Each structure stands twice: as structure tokens, then as C-alpha cells.
């Protein structure tokens, strides 16, 4: 693929997903996930459950589609955690590239937290993350 | 803004003296290499200024490690290369001792704590995406999207080669706003490790709300944390203790790092 920016817009997520149930993303996708990308070490499980954030994963630029697009993610998790989750789901190799975009404009850092992105760029109670296998918005 | 241009230059010229020492366990020569001293710009990133450090030390480690990625450590804490140097100093150094004593490593890259940085291209990409994120907050990403590739390069090359005029020729476009409105939201990251396990907090704060110019104090209030509960504190950026009544719009225009974010550290005076 070349480096030309992909001009395609995000698929309309309003229809299909309204009926789609939210599925909780398991809190461990990969035991070898580096600490920088996983949530803070879990303190012994107290009564306070970690709040969840609804994340909608949208393939762009011909990225493989996942059957389930709407996920409930611990607000303390990072983009890197979601990346490793998608890699596992799509059985990507380590050498395969995977990019994330927010707002069809920027790629967040892998150690950025889902909560921060939701607070700044979430809408209608969810955070939409576009993912692709080649660079989309430069 | 014109009368405050001197401030932009003062901030740009902020430097920190650093003393780099090779980790003792990695020295493979009979005599340990001398420490390496460098004045580094606060606004830049370590991978952009440490080529000389690498050349100085690499000859003293075993040949198998010559091509390894170099990493730095301060008091057992690996330094995140994707944080600007001034932020790392404000965040980690509590006794303000200078020169800043850092340990250089070529072995055992802590990839559980640091992102990989195989080349300066990775730093460029990190800077560009941070600029886009900041612009998304300030102007709905309109300015970065309308800028030409040439302007993006000015921003990167200006920082890389430490050229104030080159960087600001493009950056001033990102700082534009209508006189009465200010930025839509202020791009900032608040580092308060005493309160949260997250590396930093980021949320939406406007520049002007209900015709009131918001201040640093308003920004802190919206974190919903009781900062006073742990004693008197400072909000530090570029080593400066910022007065809480400073208007956010002014801080954002004058004290943002090159990525257009304000990296604000909450600091308590040591007991």
C-alpha cells in the first residue's frame, strides 16, 4: 500500500449497533502484555468495580472486520491493551502493523488511557476508535 | 501576543545540564568511560539530542550490544523518550540537583515500561500526532488539516535542529484564534501521580466560559481531586511555579510544549 491518505469516512455506526449488545472486554488478553500498556496493578478486589467505557471499534482502509464491534472496556485500560486485544482477535502476527485513529485525525499514543480519550473525544456515551492495517490519516 | 514573544524565546531556550554515566554493569572495557556532560533543551526529546552520548559510550559495551537501542534511567526509573525532557525533569526530580545525573543503558531494554523508539522517524510521528490531537481540541483539527506538508516539516525540523524561527513560522498558525473566543478547548495533560495510577489526566476545559476567562485554578477544580489534602502544592511547567490565577488561554499560547500541549505537574514540597 502507498502512503496516500485514505479519504474514506467512518462507517455509519448508528444503525447496526443500537441493537447490538455490549460485550465486556476480558481484562487480560495476553499474559505477556507489558506493564506500560496494561492497567495499574489490580488491588485486591474490593467492592468498587472499575467503571467501564463503551468503545466502538471501526475497521477502515480495508481492515478485517470483527463480528463484535461494541466493547465494554475498563476505564483504566490503555490503547495498547485494545491493540493487543484486536491483534489476538484478528490473529495478527507481531510483524503486522496496526494503527488506531481518533476523530479521523490523530493516532493516540499506545500508553494513552481509554478514560482520557473518552473524556476528550467521546460522544453519545461511547468512544469510537478506527483501526486499520496501513496508515490512514497520515 | 506580540509583546510576549520574548517569553516564547525564553521558554525555547530553556536548557538543563545533564551528566550521563554508563551503567557500571555494562562497562566492558578495563577502565570505565568518563561521564558525558551535555546542555539539553527542555523542549526536545532525548532521542533527538543523544547521538553524541551514544557514540561516547557504545565503544565501552560488548560488541553484541552495539546495535541495541539505548535507554536512560534516573534513580531506577526508566525515562519515557516520548515525554519532553523538561517534563521528565519537572516530574521526577524533587531536589532540583544539577547537573541531572542519568544512567545510560544498552542492555535489557525495559519494554514493559517504555515504548520502542527504533529511529527519529518514530519521534516525528509521535510529535505530529500530538500536534493533531492538540489541534483537534483547539480548532477541531482544521488548522493541521489545512496546513501543507511543508509546514508540518517546519515544525519537525525546527524542533529537531533547535531553530526557534523555523518552528514558530508554522506554529503561530496553530496558535491563532479569534480575539473574543480563544481556543475551543485547552490542550493539556495534568500529571498528579500522588492521586492516580494513570500517568496523566486529560479532560475538556474551555478557554472562555460564560464570558469568563478560565484560569489554572478552574482547570484544577475540574479534576475533582482535593489537591490541598496533601499539603501546599505547586503547578509546575518548564520549572516555573505557575500562579493559579493565570488565564488558561495565555498559558496555552505561551507555555505549551512544541507538541502544543501544556504538560502540567502537580508538585508538593518535600516534608
Automatic annotation (TrEMBL), chain A:
InterPro entries: Atg12, Ubiquitin-like_domsf
Biased amino acid composition, Polar residues: 1-14
PANTHER family per UniProt: AUTOPHAGY PROTEIN 12, UBIQUITIN-LIKE PROTEIN ATG12
Protein name: Ubiquitin-like protein ATG12
Subunit details: Forms a conjugate with ATG5.
Gene Ontology molecular function terms on file: Atg8-family ligase activity
Family (UniProt): Belongs to the ATG12 family.
Source organism of this protein record: Daphnia sinensis
Keyword set includes Secreted: no
GO CC terms in record: Atg12-Atg5-Atg16 complex; autophagosome membrane; phagophore assembly site membrane
Gene Ontology BP annotations: autophagosome assembly; autophagosome maturation; autophagy of mitochondrion; glycophagy; piecemeal microautophagy of the nucleus
Record key words, sorted: Autophagy, Isopeptide bond, Ubl conjugation pathway
Gene3D superfamilies hit by this protein: Phosphatidylinositol 3-kinase Catalytic Subunit, Chain A, domain 1 (3.10.20.90)
TrEMBL record, chain B:
Name of this chain's protein: Autophagy protein 5
Family note: Belongs to the ATG5 family.
Subcellular location: Cytoplasm; Preautophagosomal structure membrane
Entry function: May play an important role in the apoptotic process, possibly within the modified cytoskeleton. Its expression is a relatively late event in the apoptotic process, occurring downstream of caspase activity. Plays a crucial role in IFN-gamma-induced autophagic cell death by interacting with FADD.
UniProt domain Autophagy protein ATG5 UblA: residue ranges: 11-106
GO molecular function annotation: Atg8-family ligase activity
Subunit structure: Conjugated with ATG12.
Cellular component aspect of the GO annotation: Atg12-Atg5-Atg16 complex; autophagosome; mitochondria-associated endoplasmic reticulum membrane contact site; phagophore; phagophore assembly site membrane
Pfam family, one: ATG5_UblB
UniProtKB keywords: Acetylation, Apoptosis, Autophagy, Cytoplasm, Immunity, Isopeptide bond, Membrane, Ubl conjugation
Domain Autophagy protein ATG5 alpha-helical bundle region: 121-176
Membrane topology reported for the UniProt record: Peripheral membrane protein
Broad class of where this protein is predominantly found: cytoplasm
Residue span(s) of domain Autophagy protein ATG5 UblB: 185-266
UniProt-listed GO biological process terms: apoptotic process; autophagosome assembly; autophagy of mitochondrion; cellular response to nitrogen starvation; immune system process; negative regulation of programmed cell death; piecemeal microautophagy of the nucleus
Key word Cytoplasm present: yes
Amino acid at each position: 500500500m502507498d502512503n496516500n491518505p485514505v479519504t474514506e469516512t467512518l462507517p455509519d455506526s448508528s444503525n447496526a449497533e443500537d441493537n447490538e449488545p455490549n460485550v465486556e472486554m476480558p481484562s487480560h488478553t495476553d499474559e505477556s502484555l507489558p506493564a506500560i500498556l496494561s492497567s495499574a496493578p489490580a488491588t485486591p478486589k474490593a467492592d468498587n468495580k472499575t467503571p467501564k467505557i463503551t468503545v466502538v471499534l471501526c475497521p477502515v482502509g480495508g481492515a478485517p472486520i470483527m463480528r463484535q464491534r461494541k466493547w465494554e472496556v475498563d476505564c483504566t485500560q490503555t490503547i495498547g491493551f485494545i491493540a493487543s486485544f484486536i491483534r489476538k482477535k484478528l490473529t495478527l502476527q507481531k510483524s503486522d502493523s496496526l494503527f488506531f485513529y481518533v476523530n479521523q485525525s490523530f493516532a493516540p499514543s499506545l500508553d494513552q488511557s481509554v478514560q482520557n480519550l473518552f473524556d476528550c473525544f467521546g460522544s453519545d456515551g461511547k468512544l469510537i476508535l478506527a483501526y486499520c492495517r496501513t496508515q490512514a490519516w497520515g | 501576543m506580540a509583546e510576549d514573544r520574548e517569553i516564547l524565546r525564553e521558554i525555547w531556550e530553556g536548557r538543563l545540564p545533564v551528566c550521563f554515566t554508563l551503567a557500571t554493569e555494562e562497562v566492558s572495557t578495563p577502565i570505565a568511560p568518563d561521564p558525558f556532560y551535555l546542555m539539553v533543551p527542555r523542549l526536545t526529546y532525548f532521542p533527538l539530542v543523544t547521538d553524541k552520548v551514544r557514540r561516547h559510550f557504545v565503544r565501552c559495551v560488548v560488541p553484541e550490544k552495539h546495535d541495541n537501542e539505548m535507554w536512560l534511567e534516573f534513580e531506577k526509573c526508566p525515562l519515557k523518550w516520548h515525554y519532553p525532557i523538561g517534563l521528565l525533569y519537572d516530574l521526577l526530580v524533587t531536589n532540583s540537583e544539577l547537573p541531572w545525573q542519568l544512567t545510560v543503558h544498552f542492555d535489557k531494554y525495559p519494554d514493559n515500561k517504555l515504548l520502542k523508539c527504533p529511529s527519529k522517524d518514530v519521534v516525528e510521528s509521535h510529535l505530529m500526532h500530538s500536534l493533531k490531537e492538540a489541534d483537534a481540541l483547539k480548532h477541531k483539527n482544521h488548522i493541521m488539516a489545512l496546513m501543507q506538508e511543508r509546514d508540518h516539516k517546519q515544525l519537525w525540523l525546527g524542533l529537531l535542529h533547535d531553530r526557534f524561527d523555523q518552528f514558530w513560522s508554522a506554529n503561530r498558525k496553530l496558535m491563532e484564534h479569534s480575539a473574543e473566543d480563544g481556543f475551543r478547548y485547552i490542550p493539556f495533560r495534568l500529571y498528579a501521580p500522588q492521586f492516580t495510577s494513570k500517568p496523566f489526566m486529560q479532560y475538556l476545559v474551555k478557554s472562555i466560559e460564560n464570558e469568563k476567562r478560565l484560569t489554572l485554578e478552574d482547570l484544577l477544580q475540574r479534576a475533582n481531586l482535593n489537591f490541598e489534602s496533601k499539603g501546599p502544592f505547586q503547578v509546575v511547567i518548564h520549572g516555573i511555579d505557575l500562579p493559579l490565577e493565570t488565564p488558561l488561554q495565555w498559558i496555552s499560547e505561551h507555555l505549551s510544549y512544541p507538541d502544543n500541549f501544556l504538560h502540567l505537574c502537580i508538585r508538593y514540597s518535600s516534608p
